Amino acid sequence: MRGMTLTELQRIYEQPLFALLEQARTVYRAHWADDEIQLCTLLSIKTGNCSEDCSYCAQSARYKTKVKPTALMTPAEVAAVARQAQANGATRFCMGAAWSGVREDTAQFAQVLEIIRAVHDLGIEVCVTLGHLSPAAARQLKAAGLKVYNHNLDTSPEHYPHIVTTHRFEDRLQTIRAVQEAGLALCCGGIIGLGESVTDRLRMLEVLAGFQPPPESIPLNCLMPMPGTPLENQPPVDIFDLVRLIATTRVVFPRSKVRLSAGRACLSREAQALCFFAGANSIFFGERLLTAGNPTEDADRQLLETLGLRPQRASN
Ligand code: SAM
Ligand code: DTB
Ligand code: SF4
User: Fold this and answer.
1) Which of 113, 196, 236, 258 lies 20 to 30 Å from 9, alpha-carbon distance?
2) What is the tally of structural domains in the chain?
3) Residue 314 has what pLDDT?
4) Catalytic residue among 54, 188, 222, 275
């Protein structure tokens, strides 16, 4: 299967908004039986003090932010949080660690494998995001019961060096190859609101569309400007830019989960409804993302009920 060219993506994205929404809704209905929203709960299992300089991130050691660094949590501590998330209705548990990457011959990595086994044993889908991975580390994660690895492109290859200087876009692609070759599902998306152009956003989709297979899930984050980071004063993203990007993503990736990710706490209920109509079918559920806030579980349950949307049921 061939990918999509930038010109084709622009043609989809630049339609009148209602034509784009209609196209996205038609694609959604042809591929998804129900109006189900996947609920994923996030936990930061190791916070802060990261060696990388991603200019949006409160966890980089280079910036003076409010984040308090923590050591890697124990398997028992993590399992307790995962059990609660499952009881609250989440079907995926996503764990993030503020590392540039992992090496498979370390005690920390052995502890991560233990954590994955403990969460997998609960019968909830397990996802982690640990930074750069070698092919061998990816295979070990898979053997421990990991289903999905999250590694975002974050922005276009052209804009990436303006956002991060401690690693290259090509390094991200290398990890993604390791993940896919190990047979793990790939969760890969990006952030908007970093000062990039619409072309950058579509270039990011163009790169995603070249992956074989396409990402299982695509998180679309809106920058949450973190005090102390270089991007702390970035203006918010226009809601219609977000809706257009979601709808375009839905058209290009009919079978991928499209996750309305960071920044949802700043969106009105109406704005979120439009995002779901445009094809988003997954959210982060729970009051905390990694370090930042998210809508309360009660508010989200009510919103889904008001819209007549159902939380995705557990399949295992
Ligand atoms: N260290 C790993 C890495 O960089 O791949 C994993 C953790 S990192 C925090 C995971 C993702 O969170 C980033 O790729 C980015 O898309 C998102 N993220 C981080 N800070 C954010 C912010 N302030 N606003 C929106 N999204 C953010
Ligand atoms: C993703 O794309 N978004 C999540 C998850 N993958 C790891 C992280 C959002 C982080 C928001 C900022 C924070 O909590 O520090
Ligand atoms: Fe570190 Fe990931 Fe934050 Fe970059 S995004 S500073 S790699 S935790």
Assistant:
1) 236
2) 1
3) 78
4) 54
